[in-house]
Amino acid sequence: xxxxxxGAPGSGKGTQAEHLQRELGLTHIASGDLFRDHVKRQTExxxxxxxxxxxGALVPDAITIAMLQERIARPDxxxxxxxxxxxxxxxxxxxxxxxxxxLEREIDGxxxxxxxxxxxxxxxxxxxxxxECQVPFHVxxxxxxxxxxxxxxxxxxxxxxxxAPDTVRARLVTxxxxxxxxxxxxxxxxxxxxxxxxxxxxDVKKATxxxxxxxxx
Length: 217
Ligand SMILES: [Zn+2]
Fold this sequence. Notes:
The chain is of the alpha/beta class. It is 48% helix and 17% strand.
């Protein structure tokens, strides 16, 4: 079973991916990890990708697709893959269809972890970091009590500029602008499965697993 996982930053899709990997033996393939692995191993594709990234340019889809093709062709994907971080645009969704055709596989479902914007903003913009020990805290989910190293107090907490509410809103706008057509496309061809990412993490895990198990029944 080959799946695509979609969700905005802060939706918790990484947690769901780990759970599905453990429960169903799917291989989690995150595009960010693929890049880092190729760059670290200094492969031909990694060198090309790094060249774009150091110039602050987007890595062309052809490079990402080549990395994906090589990764999906490995024997550990026999139970299926869970693609995370790709496709993010409509062009990438089309390129993914072509890749799966070449590999004689197909996308069986697209799991969309949906969380309302207000919740995403609260989750992402509530993150603060202790300047002394670099431990992240969350103002509501994991409030600062005492620093694990025991040598600093709440006065050392600060917020990264990435996590400021306005920056978070801008990140979400970019995400939706790119990904909304992808979500619509998968809904149209009846592959989209929407799971609510709101509530206790164990409940979300149960709902996600049940939704995936129902595919093809
Ligand atoms: Zn600290």
